Amino acid sequence: MTSSGQPKNADILIHDAMVLTMDEERRFFENGSVAVSGDEILDVGPAEELEGNYQARRTIDGRNKILMPGLVNVHTHAPMNIYRGAADDLPLREWLYDHIFPLEAAFSSKLENLKAGLRLAIAEMLLSGTTMFKDMYFFTDELAAVVAETGMRAMLSEAVFDNATPSNGGGDKTLDYIDATIRNWQQHPLVRQGVAAHAAYTVSPELIVKAKDLARKHDTMFSIHLSENQWEVDTIRAMYGVTPVKHLENLGVLDRQTLAIHCVILSDEDIAILANTHTGVAHSPQCNMKLANGAAPVPDLLKKGVHVGVGTDGVASNNDLDMFDEIRSMSLLHKLTSNSTTVLNAREAIEMATITGAKAIGYDDRIGSLEKGKKADMIMLNLDKPHSKPFYNVYSSLVYSLRSSDVETVIVNGEVLVDQRQLQRMDLSAVYEDIERVAQEISAFQRRKQAR
Ligand SMILES: [Zn+2]
Q1: Ligand 1 mean position to 234 CA, how many Å?
Q2: Distance, CA 335 to ligand 1 centroid (Å)?
Q3: Are 222 and 196 contacting, i.e. CB atoms less than 8 angstroms apart?
Q4: Are 194 and 157 in contact (CB under 8 A)?
Q5: Whose CB among 33, 260, 262, 362 lies 3.0–4.6 Å from 15's, allowing a Cys bridge?
Q6: Using CB atoms within 10 A of its CB, is residue 75 exposed (0-12), middle (13-18) or buried (19+)?
Q7: CATH class label, 71-360
Q8: What are phi and psi of 276, to 5 degrees?
Q9: What is the distance of C-alpha 335 from the center of its chain?
Q10: Comparing 8-69+380-420 with 71-360, is the CATH topology the same?
Q11: How far is the CA of 452 from the centre of ligand 1 (A)?
């Protein structure tokens, strides 16, 4: 009880759950409770300590369930969900130039298509336990409104290219669009805007610097695909005489508000540069495997103190946005390629998907762990399944045997968005109807192309 003896008001009290906090001490309460008021976590602790202290509008029974921070997906291209499965198992250049780019030229300039893909992506992410995603695509001003409707947390980043993009003229025109977009969304509680440059081989050095300057002006994140494969490293070396990481260091754009996406091919010097500049890294193991790019030196990056988060990347190269699936693959991949069973253990995998991911994108002051004063973004998984029994270790269970379909409850910013595996704000049948319309157009396009 409180000192006055009067219970305090709370909006939600989740009680008697196994609470994995991911706070600084990584506290785990075998029988714990979390109280939420408005958009914030009011209290976290042993169930018997919180019991009677709070008078909650809504109570949720957490028995035989794991309550943990919502997963942070640090790299997606969510509207690209319309292209899931449209082109697979092809040589990299053919996949990109003969399939993905023509599809984007035909379908990504129509906003309705992207809205359909984005809604599908958000439904998929929420139902698989992701509460925050950092996206890179086009039309970020218009699409932010779609995210806001769903109640999910996101940072959208419009991608700058030298050339025109589906949303605008490219180069300085894109920067003007981003400048206005950031201002439009500055005050929103859930959706923020960053700045992205696609990659060092599609964006000139001058434009990369301008894009980073714009991000600095607004005190927001800058992100860029970096050192994704050997072809990129060879190309940048031929153009600028250095590795892609060194090239960006020379441009002065690496710092703790920059997210470097992929970082598969890195020299020891590259790793030192990323560590010394405090650049965040997004790791997308399934995409790297599917495109046969290699295994990023994640254990070495972690050893040097680099904040490495996990991103699924877009479904064109994954083909889903399932973070539980991603971290299991990640943990297995690095054990295999480093020939060591102790590399990337289950606890590190969960850290990367929660608090370390939040650090990589500059969100750790508000999400990534269950702590008093942080935003109430959390998920609860049901352990009442054959594949989850018996239960000995929370990290092992989460990484090696539980599945995203075990996620039962999802709370973002204090609002229950998934209850008993049902989306509370989104109408899934309308989402499917929209996506079916786009899919039929894409199928017809593919058939016409094949007939040619
Ligand atoms: Zn990407």
Answers
A1: 19
A2: 24
A3: yes
A4: yes
A5: 33
A6: buried
A7: alpha beta
A8: -65, -30
A9: 23
A10: no
A11: 30
The residues that bridge with 416 in the sheet, in sequence order, are 411
Beta strand pairing call for 258-262 and 191-199: unpaired
Say if CB 390 and CB 435 are below 8 A apart: no
Instruction: Count Cβ atoms below 10 Å from residue 277 Cβ, excluding itself.
Output: 18
Q: Which pairing describes strands 40-46 and 54-61: parallel, antiparallel, or unpaired?
A: unpaired
Q: How far is the CA of 314 from the centre of ligand 1 (A)?
A: 6
- β-pair partners for 365: none
Which amino acid is present at 189? Answer: P
Domain extents in the chain: 8-69+380-420, 71-360
Is residue 35 within 8 A of residue 54, CB to CB? The reply is: yes
Q: How far is the CA of 7 from the centre of ligand 1 (A)?
A: 48
Distance 310 CA to ligand 1 centre (A): 12
pLDDT of residue 201: 96
Spacing, Cα 342 to ligand 1 middle (Å): 29
**pLDDT number for residue 332:** 98
**Inter-residue contact 344 to 298 (CB < 8 Å):** yes
What is the token pair recorded at 357? 């991911």
pLDDT < 50 regions, the chain: 1-3
Question: What distance in angstroms lies between residue 77's CA and the mean position of ligand 1's atoms?
Answer: 6
CA of 95 to the centre of ligand 1 (A): 15
CATH superfamily, with its number, for domain 8-69+380-420: Urease, subunit C, domain 1 (2.30.40.10)
Centroid of ligand 1 to alpha carbon of 31 (angstroms): 40
Q: What is the pLDDT of residue 1?
A: 43
pLDDT digits (tens, 9 = 90+) for 284-335: 999 999 999 999 999 999 999 999 999 999 999 999 999 999 999 999 999 9
Report pLDDT for 93: 81
